[in-house]
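Pipeline run #58 for the internal structure catalog. This entry was flagged by the ingest filter as a single-chain record with no existing model, so it goes straight to prediction. Upstream metadata was stripped on purpose; only the residue string is passed forward. Reviewer on rotation: M.T. Logging verbosity set to normal.
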Amino acid sequence: MAGIYIHVPFCAKRCAYCDFYSQTSHAYKNTYIESVARELEERASYIQGEPVETIYFGGGTPSQLKADALGRIFNAIEQHFDVSKCAEVTLEANPDDLTEAYLDDIRSLPFNRISLGVQSFNDDDLQKLNRRHDRDKAIEAVRRCQETGLTNLSIDLIYGLPEQTLEAWEANLEAAFGLNVPHFAAYHLSYEEGTPLNRAMKSGAVRPVGEETSVELYHRLIEKAASAGYVHYEISSFCFPGYFSKHNTSYWTGKKYLGVGPSAHSYDGCSRQWNVASLSQYCDALSHNRPYFEQEFPTIRMRYNEYIITGLRTMWGIRLSLLKEMFGEDYTRHFEQQAGPYLRSGKLRQTDDSVCISEKALFTSDGIICDLMS
């Protein structure tokens, strides 16, 4: 089973923190749809005939595409791939795009999951992040989806905002949990190079929260989510039992996936590819049969490191038997030697064949993961 990711690069405006490839000009929309359909046709053999289990429209802001444009992409997918066993089809959306009319328009499309970029239920936070919606619009969007039968919802939240207090973060979580969404992801704010927020930090206009506060915010997130019945299945992801993101989990568990659109990444089990991060170059290359992606073939050391990085993000962790099968005795011995001190300190825990990062060490997991890499 494999996944398909469609990168939609269009946004109404840029958020202050975002460094994903996107653009606010929509001049290339029709050409983009044609190019995506052409890429899907050209790369139909990329996942080697495996049935498609998940389809994910990410961005950018996929909800900036109208239903007919989304439908044209679905037609191309269905024409070239086996979607008979597809279980999860996700649309990333901005809350203010999900009007009653828009939800009615996409009702005939295969979407059965919506991922909403809420980020915060605090209007001051939303203004600082340069988001288009406010608290009320976010809540209305969730309720509107639920009323129309789209109950498999996920919302994104950001914490560690400038001057954010523990009380403000708890209020955010209470608002989120009160909506009874089955899945949410919470990410610590990062000041990515080239973003307005990064420039504001460098100028002294905003000041990041301290590490002690960040740790406290994360631990409160874990506590509150557990009390509300959520399973913490990945460093940043929480869900009610049975509602984990099948698509994102495929990345962490090494399944094949095809990434389509500018800047999209792909993995076929042997090599990784990434498309050019330019809409104009992407469209021009496809229309003139020129290369539009780069490719690498990871060495065994690179593949081992990728397995450590992705596996330890999740509650399933590293399977020792699989580690030995995939990488041999030397890498298994290295892992066991490096893991020993962390197992004794309780930062790692072992259950039968699996080794995971303990809840108390998740926020500082980067250092542990680095030590376990080759």
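catalog note: The mean pLDDT is 95.
catalog note: The domain at 300-372 is CATH 1.10.10.920 (Arc Repressor Mutant, subunit A).
status: ready for reviewer M.T.
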